[in-house]
């Protein structure tokens, strides 16, 4: 009887995780509408204007603009693609643990390990999602937070450049919200 309640709870949590993942995929990342986003667009326009002077033919200009637009979308796709890949991998892992939970021949030790692994996966997934949202609120277009083994956290933000103050702030945020030592946090940026 107790097993059934736990199984129902786990299935409910997994369903909730799948629905939230689908919602996030459909709505896409939240882009800040602050001054940082406006400055990025102005910088892109300046590059386009500079390159227009270098291109003598009209067709060359259009191709260059299309290349930049495609390049920007490809960079944004990196973050979305990584997040989708991560969600897919975690779904597969959760599915494997669920098979153990529903196996009538599984030992009590295997059941408790599977429950613990599912709980840990959900906790890590939630903390990474919250951290990515907080980083976007700081003005970055997109971010990926990766929790590795041994409690190391990698943060990749979508930005053309980063100042030392921004790196320190991100490390501090990760340290505070994910409860990891600062030396276990690495920050990188990618445009």
From TrEMBL:
Domain of life from the UniProt record: Bacteria
Keyword Transcription: no
Pfam families, A to Z: SpoIIIAH (PF12685)
Segments of this protein annotated with the region Disordered: 47-77
Segments crossing the lipid bilayer: 7-26
Gene3D superfamilies: Stage III sporulation protein AH-like
Keyword DNA-binding listed: no
InterPro entries: SpoIIIAH, SpoIIIAH_sf
Bias-annotated ranges (Basic and acidic residues): 47-75
Keywords: Membrane, Transmembrane, Transmembrane helix
Entry protein name: Stage III sporulation protein AH
Organism: Desmospora profundinema
């Amino acid at each position: 009887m107790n097993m059934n309640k736990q199984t129902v709870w786990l299935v409910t949590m997994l369903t909730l995780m799948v629905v939230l993942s689908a919602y996030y995929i459909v709505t896409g990342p939240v882009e800040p509408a602050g001054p940082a986003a406006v400055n990025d667009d102005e910088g892109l326009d300046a590059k386009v204007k500079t390159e227009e002077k270098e291109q003598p033919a009209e067709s060359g200009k259009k191709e260059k603009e299309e290349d930049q637009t495609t390049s920007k979308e490809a960079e944004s796709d990196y973050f979305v693609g990584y997040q989708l890949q991560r969600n897919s991998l975690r779904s597969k892992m959760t599915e494997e643990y669920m098979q153990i939970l529903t196996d009538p021949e599984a030992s009590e030790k295997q059941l408790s390990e599977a429950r613990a692994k599912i709980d840990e996966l959900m906790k890590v997934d939630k903390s990474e999602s919250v951290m990515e949202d907080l980083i976007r609120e700081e003005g970055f277009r997109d971010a990926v937070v990766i929790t590795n083994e041994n409690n190391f956290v990698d943060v990749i933000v979508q930005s053309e450049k980063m100042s030392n103050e921004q790196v320190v702030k991100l490390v501090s945020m990760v340290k505070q919200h994910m409860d990891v030592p600062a030396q276990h946090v690495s920050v990188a940026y990618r445009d």
